[in-house]
Design goal:
209 residues; alpha/beta; Ribosomal Protein L4, Chain: A; 2 domains
């Protein structure tokens, strides 16, 4: 398929050919859901922890007789039912990571890119290089282009002036092409790819096919 290329000034800069096996897939929500869940679980720290009965600071001595008290038979004060005792079945540090085959992860990225094409939210720009790092001028440029909520993917090396100018603009994310991921794509309304990012993606998918 063919898509027009624009510049940051809003001018036409020719056309590019997009691979149908990457950008023209019939979007499958189940694959996207599996990938989003994979990313979110992988991002979880898993450091939540509570003290269980063995980690309590109270004495381990049996505080009452086994029989004859007229009440229940207890061991020590670290039991969960006592104040200051350990927590029963509380969380402990663990990894939340789940397995997802690499082929599915690659396919999910293709479906995410295809979803932006289907919704008309994919934009290809010639370059995002800037002569200065002024946020105000870049914000005005985004306003003219209607890039209010967008993920911008550049080549392997980001233009530092553009990064500095864009980092304080709300709802605008800038990533190098190696950092592209499904959650970031679906999080923003528009996906902006530079020609350098597009070439890198095509090379990446060519190696995995």
């Amino acid at each position: 398929m063919e898509l027009s290329v624009t510049t940051l000034d809003g001018k036409a800069a020719g056309n590019v050919q997009l691979a149908d096996d990457v950008f023209g897939l019939e979007v499958r929500q189940d694959i996207l859901h599996r990938m989003v869940r994979y990313q979110q679980l992988k991002a979880m720290a898993g450091t939540h922890d509570v003290k269980n009965r063995s980690e309590g600071i109270r004495t381990g001595k049996k505080f009452g007789k086994q029989k004859g008290s007229g009440g229940a038979r207890h061991g020590d004060r670290k039991a969960p039912q006592f104040r200051g005792g350990g927590r029963a079945f509380g969380p402990t540090p663990r990894s939340h990571v789940i397995d997802l085959p690499k082929k599915i992860r690659t396919l999910a990225l293709k479906h995410a890119l295809s979803s932006k094409i289907k919704s008309g939210s994919l934009i290809v720009t010639d370059s995002v290089a800037r002569k200065d790092a002024k946020t105000a001028s870049l914000l005005a440029t985004f306003g003219k282009l209607a890039w209010v909520n967008a993920l911008i993917i550049d080549g392997t090396v980001l233009d530092q002036n553009f990064v500095l100018a864009a980092r304080n603009i709300p709802h605008i994310d800038v990533l190098p092409v190696q950092g592209i991921n499904v959650v970031s794509i679906l999080k923003r309304d528009k996906l902006v790819l530079t020609k350098a990012a597009l070439a890198a993606l095509e090379a990446r998918f060519a190696c995995t096919s």
